Amino acid sequence: MKKQWFTISVYSENNVGLLNRISGIFLKRHINIESLNVSKSEIDGVSKFTIVVHTTEKWVRNIVGQVEKQIEVIKAFYHTDDETIYQESALFKIASNLLFDERQIQNIIKENNSQIVTVAREFFVIAKSGRRNEIDEMHEQLKPFGIMQFVRSGRISVTKSEMQISALLEEFYEEA
Amino acid sequence: MEAVKMKTEETKNKAKLKITGAEAIIHCLLAEGVDTLYGYPGGAIMPVYDELYKFQDKLHHVLTRHEQGATHAAQGYARVSGRVGVAMATSGPGATNLVTGLADAMIDSTPMVCITGQVTRSLLGSDAFQETDIIGISTPVTKWNYQITRAEEIPEIMAKAFYIAKSGRPGPVLVDITKNAQFDEFEFSYEKCTAVRSYTPVPKPDIKAIEAAADLINQAKKPMIVWGQGVILGQAEEELKALVEKAGIPAAWTIMGASAIDTDHPLNVGMVGMHGNYGPNILTNECDLLIAIGMRFDDRVTGNLETYAKQAKVIHFEIDKAEVNKNVYADVAVLGNSKETLGLMLPLIKENSHEEWHNEFKKRYAIEYGEVIEKDIYPTKEGLTMGEVIKEINNAANNEAVLVTDVGQHQMIGCRYAKFKKSKSNITSGGLGTMGFALPAAIGAKMGAMDREVVAVIGDGGYQMTIQELGVIYQLNLPVKIVVLNNDHLGMVRQWQELFFDRRYASTVMTNPDFVKIAEGYHIEAKRVSKREDLEAAVQEMIASDKPYFLEVKVEKEDNVFPMIPTGASVSDIRLK
Predict the structure, then answer these.
(1) What pLDDT, on a 0 to 100 scale, did the predictor assign at position B351?
(2) How high is the mean pLDDT of chain B?
């Protein structure tokens, strides 16, 4: 079975220690987490982990089964890139003088659909959202000018198909 | 916040009173029906022990000689009784000593609640004396864990702990309680937990899957059942037996499933796996339908997965969704509690008998009997065999004993030759293979079933890992029978060295102490047997005793356990010698 990119979405209670429990499942199977994002979800009080892995479908199915088994996990899913809409965000911190000395930088900002989020005397910061390869390309373009700091977020994604978490939770309260 | 995510059931005692967290813990245990627990005191758990002192007429705390012993005793208690085992320890080393038992209970699905003391909340993260991150350490080996830092959390978390430990696929839960939470007072009231919103303990049975399973069973020409501990945990013994008898299906068991059906039942065809019986292993690769019930296709059961039951359709009855298709693809997966799913399927099953197919098992048994079994239990050579000791125990105890085994050769021989009449009679460390398990587990098993004969059969290696628990047996005058099968070796490792490492016996030869004197040091009646003519009488004397009893049997030093599926080989390649 060939390796591919999968996005794992985990809906869970917002409890201390759950991240450790989930990451341990990957650790035990020697599978590297390529990207991790934790945020609130569309449901009040429910957290969402978005985890990207590069592995086989057999392993991702196994992992999602183990993740979903954790007491505080409500539901977990995995999707291929085709099945999701996904993005990452990046920040570039660059010396302010370059903005005036190197006109090309302004073109790079425009062509990459990125924004300047702040300008200070010493530096300015560019924000770029997009797919990883787009961010990588912009990084390559800016690199020759000197990047003071660079950071990229974990992947965030929504799926094309429905993830019926609210219905699941309603069922629980109806049975109460 | 917790309350909205849990369903609770109010207990009768609604009167609110202000008590300390430590006392609250005792009331939680009592509300959960706990009457026995195992543990070891220390600084961070002292307030709870102080309350245990006051409640000793209601709660029997057993002081084990090591915290690991407390976990195994709690496991033995749980496994024999079906109740939740409880173990308690202090912070730091007390807590870390629980880890092996937690891991064992996790992999063998044993319901257990462990309570640990923790340094006071303000000291958390300061590297205080006896502070350790037991939540971090125990996360991979617990079904759930939680650190309580406020007394008010105690009732809800304890209720949740017991509910999670025993519901669905059972497992160990650890609750860590900071010292301030033990001292602080709050208004106590207790409500049992009956559901947690993010947790589905038992999947709802799917009637379509049950019908599909019944169709496959009704059509099969050469069906075979392999059942596991899920049958025992789900209390599905009667349903399993009814299925086996109605459809006339030969049924084999994993080590954890042993005793769910009578050993002498005609359709019980023995154990599968590395040292299981010849017939069920070989015929796994000849059946046309493999019906797995409450088992998880452990590698010690399947051997090489690439050559495991490839010709057969597979039905998997399983409570834990994550086990389905994990190791072996299931053509039909029936999720749910096996008692319920088998019960729903039974009316759809047509009466049948697969005599010719069953004869294939009998033929293989005859081969195994001639090559292995007869030599094991009726040996003609001079040295004593482990098999004949098990046979004598069967006879003396009328096949009614609870057999508690440790890990190694004696464990395989014990499980192969013990005869069981009653479910929950085989207590062993199956998944983790924890040496040192048996002696403390036997203490718990005896206390969980005082009316039953409990015989611990242990190797000379594993015995010395938890030998100090003899102190508990002496202190409680607990009539546990202990048999050490002494071959002066770490026998199973030695066997592998003989077969696969060119007889290089690296660190497997043991110079042992005088085990009889050690037992006598604990004032336990003790005897040693090294001749066949003395064996039967010695075992009978041991079983007849109503006191603790220790029997050392000097067995052949370099015997091997067969049949054997070498690691990575196919079940078809099982060796008889």
Answers:
(1) 98
(2) 96
Domains of chain A, residue spans = 4-85, 86-152
- Reported ipTM exceeds the 0.95 cut: no
Residue B1 pLDDT greater than 50, yes or no: no
Partner-chain residue, chosen from A13, A16, A66, that has the shortest CB–CB distance to B5: A13
Q: What is the pLDDT averaged over residues A30-56?
A: 95
Catalytic residues of B: 67, 129-130, 179, 492
Gap from A146 CA to chain B (nearest CA, Å): 40
Report chain A's C-alpha Rg in angstroms.
Answer: 20
Q: Which fold has domain A86-152?
A: Alpha-Beta Plaits (3.30.70)
Look at B476 and B5; give whichever has higher pLDDT.
B476
- Two structure tokens written together for B569: 């080989």
Rounded alpha-carbon distances, angstroms, from residue B18 to B141, B183, B198: 35, 12, 31
Q: Chain A interface, mutation test: which of B137, B198, B297, most A Cβ atoms within 10 Å?
A: B198
Residues of B in contact with A74 (CB under 8 A): 197-198
- Please report how many Cα atoms fall inside a 13 Å half-sphere around the Cα of residue B369, on the Cβ side: 8
Q: What is the pLDDT of residue A165?
A: 85
d(CA B318, CA B143): 17
- Give me the mean pLDDT over the B536-560 stretch: 98
Domain A4-85 has CATH 3.90.79.10: no
